[in-house]
Amino acid sequence: MSLSSRPPRRLQEEDESVVEASRGVAANATDFGAHRRVLVVDDDPGVAQSLLWSVRAMGFSASVACADVACALQEVALRPPDLVLMDVSLGGPIDGIEAAALIRQRLDVPVVFISGHADAAMARRAAAVGPYGFLMKPLSPEVLAVNLPLAIARHRADVESRVFEAAVAGASVGIALVAVRGEERVIERVNDAFCAMAGMPREVIVGNPPCFLASDPAQLSVQRLREAMRQLVPAEELVHGGGQGGEFWTQVTLSPVRSGLERVSHMLVFHKDVTRQRAAEAALAEAQRFETIGQLAAGVAHDFNNVLTSIVASAEFARAVAHDPEQLRDLDDVLDASRRGGLLTRRLLDFARGVPDVQGTVSLADTVADAWHLATRVAGRGVRCSLELPDRRPDALVDLDATALEQVLLNLVVNARDAMPAGGALRVRVTASRDEAVLEVRDDGVGMSPEVQRRIFEPLFTTKPRGLGTGIGLSTTKMLVQRAGGRIEVESAPGQGSTFRVILPCSEASMRPSRVAAAQGRRDAGGAACLVAVIDPELRQACVRALRGVGFNVHEAGTAEVAQRVSEGLGTSLRFVLCEELMHRSATEALMPAAPRVVILAEDRARGEPGPMTAFLQKPFEMKTLVRLALSMLSP
């Protein structure tokens, strides 16, 4: 319904004597109306002026009167009032109730209806607008003096309540209002944050007991909260909960709400989601545990690796002269157990550091060949394993630590083994070009669907039954490969097995003439002088024996001081030094007067980039690995 096209009509003030009778009561009114405005809307000039004088006498000094809706809307837009006195029976196309509705759409202002008559239909229409009073004419100053301040005060309280409710609704912590009904405690209202934490709509939550989200009702903290609810006293507890949105930790705070005669009618429950905080605390505790393990591991790694290397050396020397098949198998078991012990030490150090170090430059083919025996043992007897290496493999070096490369191989072997629960064939192949080296692991297991292939490298994702898979093997493999600048390609289909290709860029060292490749054809050092500077006597003697066995003129030292004297005495005839990491740190310059090549025996992975004159050999190691590396040091 449109407004009348006639211009807005604002009433002119009449002689104050027409309402002189109201002056007595109005004069005694308080200054409640000071600085407030009342808009009077009535198409009867006499009534409008009488009302205007009364409200001005009450202190509403800036008040005005309008005779129609157009004028009222204009006043609302230009000078918003604090209260509207609206005649229900306005003449024109829009009555007072509809006019009040239009005003309430534009401005949150209290409206008090006035009328000379009323019926049930009018009352229902008026109630829909939400008025703050319905007064019957004629209006006395006393009625106005009581009802107008009450309407303004009620409206102010409503606004404050709505603001508070909006603040509660938008609060970042979950809030629930729990009704106290005798011995029963029932959730009556909740805010959005509570619904988000629970992962449930409001209508599902309301009506439940306050602790219904606890993952275990027997939690001691839940029992204490229930007792506090029963006694209607404050409380604060940490609770583990779970809803449709998943598990969470919440800091629950109870606060009694008193209404009327100091009676507790409700309990206000605050839920602060501390899931991330708990995760951060757990991560900190885990990091501290890693640090403790790392300190312990570093403390024992030196001696333990020396012992393992001595065991490996003794087993290798014994195997070289053994002929009995049973003795050879026993010695192979000793070597295998020593290798696994070495891997455990390395993994313990990696675990303690948290992030594996992938620094190093190694031959992909040689590293796979060295780790193949262990890989076949990991695959198990039910898996037929085959390894294909280049007949004349070039020195295809990759920028990846040997232990990390072994871990990549073993992770892929374990994945292939688990894909063949009834046994099958595992084929590993190494190929190399000038730019790339490729490790290919192929199985004829159950294969993977495209959906599984898209997720196999996600941390903690596994298709294995609970307790049989951790979901970190392939994600760790991808991380190691990517840090070395490589990538992984996967081919698979259900029932057709899987093929993983680890493609690594060749190191710049591969572009140089290959010392390792040259050493493979070399079997004798020809009396070249070398120095074995190792503190542990058993390890030192094992290294001396291995190097003398291939023709080195070996000099030995058990301390940095002795190593320095021997190095100075040999001068430029010294071809290379085999040195423990601890000794190398204290005598680096003294051990290299003529810049010989240095092989550093390290407990951990290389700390820094190995230079062209330096190589790292991580304990425990096999003597054949030492020999191959030592012979490579003789190449120009």
How would you describe this structure in keywords?
636 residues, 5-stranded antiparallel beta sheet, alpha/beta
Spatially, the strands of the biggest sheet line up as 2-1-3-4-5
Number of strand elements: 22
Average of per-residue pLDDT values:
80
Largest sheet: 5 strands, parallel
Kindly describe this structure.
The protein is an alpha/beta fold. Helix content is 43%, strand content 21%. The chain has 20 helices and 22 strands. The longest helix is centred in the middle third of the chain and has 47 residues, at 275-321. The chain starts with 22 loop residues before the first helix and ends with a helix. Residues 1-6, 12-30, 511-520 and 606-610 have low confidence and may be disordered.
In short:
The protein has 636 residues and is an alpha/beta fold. It is built from 20 helices and 22 strands. Strands 2-1-3-4-5 form a five-stranded parallel sheet, with helices on both faces.
List the helices and strands and how they pair.
Blueprint: H1 23-27, E1 38-41, H2 45-57, E2 64-66, H3 69-78, E3 83-87, H4 96-106, E4 111-115, H5 120-129, E5 134-136, H6 141-169, E6 174-181, E7 184-190, H7 192-198, H8 202-205, H9 220-231, E8 235-243, E9 246-258, E10 264-273, H10 275-321, H11 325-353, E11 362-363, H12 364-379, E12 383-388, E13 397-398, H13 402-418, E14 424-432, E15 436-443, H14 450-453, H15 473-483, E16 487-492, E17 498-505, H16 515-520, E18 529-533, H17 537-548, E19 553-557, H18 560-570, E20 574-580, H19 581-587, E21 597-602, E22 614-618, H20 623-632
Helix pairs in contact: 3-4, 10-11, 10-17, 12-13, 13-15, 17-20
